[in-house]
């Protein structure tokens, strides 16, 4: 082991930034989530010594206060910057980067006790063969790791560059900025944007009928050289980023399959729209709603629309996560939905270079596309697209949170359809008919019993199962519409109040991707002779009825 010594410009303490509070709450709620800890492997040239790497890591520690800070989680939370000190550089013989990462991840972090950052190198024949950093997500997001990667590459190439340099924007400075009235007003506007979107967006943008047994989770990964080459052509033609082009293809795919002209879903905003944040090492990313009008648009227009939608979403990407959580609980309880707040589209790509299209004919000669399915831990999100790389090959992953509803074959088919669309768009703009032809996928077929309620697709049978499970052993029947009111539940022998009935249905709702709670509850004194007959239910005594919303909101599960 080698001690990494650091001495920065200052020490200090202050509140957590909005981005740090976002991660802090997540870590408290889901401490063992895989993405709670991030890792990155640095490229090291042949002949690199341990001392070379140590010198570079020491410079990074001096430059970036977030790497040498401790964090008290909670509300409001505290970040404490250490002016000087040491951190261990773990030196291992032989293992590659993946093994180094596994070793560094083996022990949990205690961010309040020590900076939640670990550095390690692998040594072979006296020289470094791999160098990695592993850190809590409260220290850095993916784009911060890209900043560290670029700086490390410069430092390892040029020993003369191994100096801390001028002070940079730091998380402590960010917290001070966020406390100013103008910034607080901006964050209030972001909360209002979140509220509006949450009231209008479908709970699950890809809801469809069950196609198989079980309800596991898994993902298909794709590596497509052809798609990456196609992105270069579209980027050169439209003047937009390659992730925005992939987003446009995803929205076109989503709109085609669901039949919705508008795509509205949760994504992540990197929140790096201010120039002084380009070299910022900290965690800035927060969830935000992205809304894209697809309609019958051509592909290039859709790409530009997505590029603008990303910028618009970014304007509303920083807010107080605790207040956002309170608003979300209230609104979802009122609507009777349980959306997942995982991003439906997530890109970790920083696209900063100019496009470099090669001759179109080379796309047809590209290496064969690779796909691979893996089983994953359960998740509430029904469909999630993760974009990992667009250089050399488009590397992405499409995840299903319910393989009985969106199975491996369908997930794979969706990825290949997205690839077909990108390749088709390389040769020139596509009109709407061209997009549909390139995707070559039909809309989702929803059988009788599926209803469109409050912009959500729901299966009446799934709503019935929800109510049966939540209110057991009561006798229950949900009707699609009663006197123009959708999803009315008649209940006998169950809860004594409509508020309790609604609370129990809300509690049982997460993970049911084709259900929402009833809009109205009618509690009856007895069960009718024929529980399937609305007329028979209306003939029995009614004890009370209502939406159950007003008093139930305070009792909603958090």
From TrEMBL:
InterPro entries: CAT-like_dom_sf, Condensation_dom. Pfam families: Condensation. Gene3D superfamilies: Chloramphenicol acetyltransferase-like domain, Nonribosomal peptide synthetase, condensation domain. Residues 38-347 form the Condensation domain. It comes from the Bacteria. Coiled coil: none annotated. PANTHER family: FATTY ACID SYNTHASE, NONRIBOSOMAL PEPTIDE SYNTHETASE. This is Condensation domain-containing protein. The lineage of its organism: Bacteria, Bacillati, Actinomycetota, Actinomycetes, Micromonosporales.
